[in-house]
Each structure stands twice: as C-alpha cells, then as structure tokens.
C-alpha cells in the first residue's frame, strides 16, 4: 500500500518541482558559474574562472555602494510614510467605509495601474510645459521647483512611490481595524474613553502585528524598486536615483559586464535572504 | 455627527484626488489636441478631441498597438494560468497530506520577496541559449514565476476550507485520486481560482522589468511599448498621443480590477498576512 501512495505524491509534486528546476534551478547554476568568471557578451559560451575578482570589482565600486544607500533610504522612507498615511486614512475613514464600501475601490486605483505606467504618468504631470502640476504652481504661486533636478529628484521619486502604494498599507490597516471586536470599543465608550485614547491604548496596540507586516512588505518592495523610478527618471541626474535593481540592470545590459552584474545580484540575494530570515524570526517571536 | 461625516468625505476626496492625480492628468491630456497641449497645461480641456485615440488605434509604420496588446494578453494568460496548473496538485497534497510544507512551501512563498532582477540576468542567458528571448512564451514563463507564490498560497487556503468529509465520501464511493481532484476539488475551488486568475493577470500585465530585458521587437508587451513613446527622438514627446497610449495600456487591468475590487483587496490582504 505504501508504494502507490509514494508514486501518487511524486505525481502531485511533480509539476511544481519540474517548473522550479527549469526556471530557477538552472539559472542559479548559471549565475554561480558566471558570478565567478570573467565574461562579456562576446565570450558568453566560454566563461573563464576568475575566482572572487567580480566580487572585488563590485565591492570596490563606489556606484554600487551609492545604489545600496539609495535603495536602503528609499525603502525605509517610503515604507514609513506609506504606513503612517495608510494607517491614518484607514482609521479615519473606517466609519465612512462601513456605509459606503465603494470608496475603497476609488482609493485602490493607483495600485492597479502598472508602476511603470505610473512613472510615465508622473513624467507628464511634472513636465515643465505640458504638466498640470507646474502649471498650477506657476498660476497660484508664480514659482515651481525643478522636480527632477539633482536637488529635488529624491523627494520626487519618494513622493511618487508613496502616493502609489499608500493604498496597499491602507487596505491592510482597514482589514485589521475592522476585525477589532466591536464590544471592545463599546466597553471603552461606556467608560467614557475619548477617541484619541481609544486609538492609542486599544486600537493601535491591537494593530501592531499588521504595522510590522506592512512595514516589512513595503520596505522589501521599496528596496528592490525598478519600474516607476526607471520610467520616471532612469538612473537620475549623476546616477542619484540608481537603485540596486537599476544598478544591476545597467551593469548588465548597458555596460555588458556580465560577471560583475551577476556578482552584484548574488550579493543582493544574500542580503535579501538574511533580511528575510531575520524578519521571519522576529514575526514568529511576536506571534508567541 | 453629520458634520464629522462631512469632514471625512472631504479627507476622502483630497486623498483620492492626490493619489489618483497622475491618472486624472493622463486621461485629460489624452483628449487635448497638440496645439492645446502646448498652450494649456491645466486639467480643463477647452476643445476635447478624439484624434489622439484615433491615431493610436490606427495601425501605422511607427506604431501597431494591437501587437503590444496581443503580446501582453498572451504572456499574461500564460503567466496567470500556468502557476495554477503546477500549484493545484501540490497544494492539495500540502493540505490533505501535510507534505512538502517544511521546505517547498516556504521556498516558493519567499520567492515573492526577492528582487526580480536577480532572476532576470541568468534567465536572459538561459533564454539566449534555448531561443526563448523575445518570445511571448518566454515572457509568460517568467510571469508565471512572479505569480507562483501568491497562487500557491491562495490555493492552499481554498483547499483547506473544503470540508474533508466531502472528499472522504467520494473516496468511499471508489473515486480515484485524479477523478476526485478534477471532478470534486477543482470545482469547489472555483471562487479562489477566479480571484487567483484575475490577480495574476493584472500582475503579469503590469510587469515591466522582464519585458524590458527579455524582449526587443516581436514580443514587446504593452507596458514597455508605452515607454517607447517617451523616448525623445526628434521633436520631443507628443504628450497627447503618449497619454492616449497610456490610457489604452492601463484600461484592461483597471476594468478587471474595479469589477473585482473586493476579491482583489481580499487576496492582497490574505497574501500579506500569511506571508
């Protein structure tokens, strides 16, 4: 009886395992080969082993560290802003949403638009002559900053990312807020607790796990950002908006330094993996 | 009480306006003639015109938008359906037999958190070797990888909610495992399958990085095709036309998303909480 069951299990797992091996297993081997060899597009089929040379190239490249710094700052800042705005919106609008559920649909539109499209749309919005935002700023204030200039570009991409993904945080917090038992609130209001105290003492502590989850997901997404930043400003003035993903992309396709790009990707993978395990350990501990 | 609701409406209005501002500006600009774009950058159109859309939807040497739309459609369909096919049987084994939960499940689910660029380069080299570069199938396979984690999670959740007694009853009647899965479990999972499909389709349609790296001409998807209109080659960007292209490109996921917004938001939350 044991044997047919084993066969059954193998058949059940087969499709997924084969798929993973084909699209991920093989590339992992490839990236290890190329990461440790000296390769360009011309010598693609004959990689020459070069030890840790690529890793030395990457770690001594000032641009790599600038990209790492950008991704880190961008990820932390956007995650924090999105969580603050999302939480405020969810808690403040919850009574309205209880009666008019459709307003959620209006608020999540930015999430359904492709990030790459959003970046292009901001190109239009911020354009000196065709863009509505500079138009109205000139109209009312007689002045408009250069949004994509070296001084403001970081703030601009942070704002664009935050405005697109605040709805995600909003959605998570709304669900968490709505699942707080109603009798807890009623008990508090019988005691005469003010809404502010209710929020700080009862509601926020109950939503803390969601705050961690939202922060973590948004940080990961911000850290690996590519689409919207790339379509809005590319690498930015003087490379100032080069994220890790953009750095690897440019090293690979623009400069053709395959080994170096691969080494950077391996470093990125290792740091993402370490981060992920740490976060999971923290979440598990919080659960207990 | 009435006044407080009024303030809430105001906050909602401002938040919706600010967050949707780029979409609004794009829709408005799409109805402006080239002359009006240069003269009037406001959100009000004095002489609305459909010329931009007419131009975009006509096939010309410079642009065949149907080509991009078809590429996106084909790749997104592969990217949404394939993960369901490979994940469904193993999801059942994970729930009913408790198998593969130690290694495979966390492995797949954590794929979601990794930067896509890590896969893009080795896959580019692999595709170059097997001739999958610049094909809709090649792009679709990668989009399937992107969708796999959430698909697996949603299917595991859905199967766990089916009462085990139903399956046991069918087993008593002598149904074989294959029949049981296809005739009983699959139909019972239909709501989850629809959600998974819509979510996967939108994600795949909106993907940009893989399209940019792995396609050059034949299989260029809509998101990448739209960005071509912003390449300032001589004469600068034609904002009206570019805006019309973006409206067409963003419409399919928006329509799907707004029809099913409850399911979409539900699965986003489920994906976040279980991860």
Task: Summarize model confidence as the mean pLDDT of chain A.
Answer: 84
Share in helix of chain A: over 70%
**Mean of all residue-level pLDDT scores of chain B:** 85
Radius of gyration based on Cα positions of chain A? 24 Å
Write structural notes for this entry.
Chain A is 77% helix and 1% strand. Chain A is mostly helical and 288 residues long. Chain A has a single domain, classed as MetI-like fold, CATH 1.10.3720.10. Chain A has a two-stranded antiparallel ribbon. The longest helix of chain A has 38 residues, at 62-99. Chain B is mostly helical. Chain B folds into two domains: 2-45, no CATH class; 65-274, MetI-like (MetI-like fold, Orthogonal Bundle), CATH 1.10.3720.10. In chain B, 75% of the residues lie in helices and 0% in strands. Chain B has helices spanning 2-19, 21-30, 34-39, 51-57, 65-96, 104-111, 117-130, 136-160, 164-172, 177-188, 190-206, 209-214, 222-228, 239-259, 261-274. In chain B, α11 (190-206) runs antiparallel to α14. The model of chain B has no long low-confidence stretch (mean pLDDT 85). Classes of the chains: A mainly alpha (288), B mainly alpha (275).
Topology of this protein?
The complex is a heterodimer of chains A (288) and B (275).
Chain A: H1 2-35, E1 37-38, E2 48-49, H2 53-59, H3 62-99, H4 102-107, H5 109-112, H6 115-126, H7 132-141, H8 153-178, H9 182-190, H10 195-223, H11 227-233, H12 244-254, H13 258-287
Antiparallel strand pairs in A: 1-2
Chain B: H1 2-19, H2 21-30, H3 34-39, H4 51-57, H5 65-96, H6 104-111, H7 117-130, H8 136-160, H9 164-172, H10 177-188, H11 190-206, H12 209-214, H13 222-228, H14 239-259, H15 261-274
